[in-house]
Write a structure and sequence with these properties.
318 residues, alpha/beta, seven-stranded parallel sheet, five-stranded parallel sheet
Length: 318
């Protein structure tokens, strides 16, 4: 079997092994592939694996040997799954490999904005503490998380773990979720989105991107939030209207925005969030811990081997 990884660099820039995929067939790995290069590189492929390279129905038509597409991620919108199903091409994804890592990044953004660790470390490198007349200093109010209200949009694997951690930190946890109140863990209360906006000191987004959730955080919903509240987005960039969030930060309606995702990645240099006050943007790395990437490759290889054996798993194209 001829196997081609189109854009392996983000998953494995050289610190991990492709051995498990090599066991499945003749493997060729490209660090990056442009749209124009796909047909040339995948022309003889029986199976291709992609992270962000888009595979359209038109491309599939020109790859007569193609039988399998493995998405090296949980989200699979980069593949036209309907077209794949019509052509009998199996498409798989890798679910739940990065749950713990994304939860960790969510908490990191919350603690960064409440404890300002990076900010003070930077100031002290520049001599701020050394010049202080006192044994300590702070330039902004310091607040405990205990007793604050944590609002969570979406209670899937990630949202659920964030909720549990919030409770462990002494926070009151409310959620906007399709799950019934009876099925929620102890100490987590269900509410409406409007209710969540009004009570949350920290609002964190863990829902899928759908037509209903697209830009669910916008100029109107931001006005309904508590003034000075913190907003976290480790879900999808398009869950928020970026211009509205930047404006809310500038006006002080939002106390801070911690995000690991943007609408366009990489973002344009003039994106207003990159220069907005109290905006803390990480470069879509919540998923990219060494442990999570190892799991990703392992599951991707297992998906392909299961397909070869005639019992495909994690199929998203049926």
């Amino acid at each position: 079997m001829e196997i081609v990884v189109l854009d392996g660099h983000s998953v494995n820039p050289g610190d991990l092994s492709w051995k498990e995929l090599e066991e499945a067939g003749n493997l060729t790995v490209y660090d990056r592939t442009t749209t124009e290069e796909v047909l040339q590189r995948a022309g003889n492929a029986d199976a291709i694996l992609t992270n962000k390279v888009v595979i359209t129905g038109e491309i599939m038509e020109k790859l007569p040997r193609l039988k399998y597409i493995g998405v090296l991620a949980t989200g699979y919108n980069v593949v036209d799954t309907a077209a794949a199903a019509q052509r009998g091409i199996i498409v798989t994804n890798v679910p739940a490999y990065s749950t713990d890592s994304v939860v960790q990044m969510t908490l990191a953004h919350i603690l960064n904005m409440t404890n300002r660790v990076a900010e003070y470390a930077d100031k002290n490198r520049k001599g701020r503490w050394s010049a202080s007349p006192d044994f300590c200093y702070w330039d902004a109010p310091l607040n405990e998380l205990a007793g604050k209200t944590l609002g969570i949009v979406g209670l899937g694997n990630i949202g659920h773990k964030v909720a549990v951690l919030g409770r462990m930190l002494g926070m009151d946890v409310f959620a906007y979720t399709s799950k019934s109140s009876a099925s929620l863990p102890d100490g987590i209360q269900k509410t409406t989105l409007t209710g969540l906006l009004g009570i949350s000191d920290i609002l964190t987004l863990h829902c899928p991107l759908t037509p209903d959730t697209h830009e669910m955080i916008n100029k109107d919903t931001l006005k309904r939030m508590k003034r000075g509240a913190l907003l976290i987005n480790t879900g999808r960039g398009a869950l928020v209207n970026e211009a509205a969030v930047a404006e809310a930060l500038t006006e002080g309606q939002l106390g801070g925005y911690g995000a690991d995702v943007m609408l366009n990645e990489p973002p344009a240099a003039d994106n207003p969030l990159l220069s907005a006050p109290n905006a803390y943007i990480t470069p879509h790395i919540a998923w990219a811990t060494t442990e999570a990437r190892k799991r990703l490759i392992h599951i991707a290889a297992a998906n392909l081997k299961a397909f070869i054996q005639g019992s495909p798993v994690n199929v998203v194209s049926l």
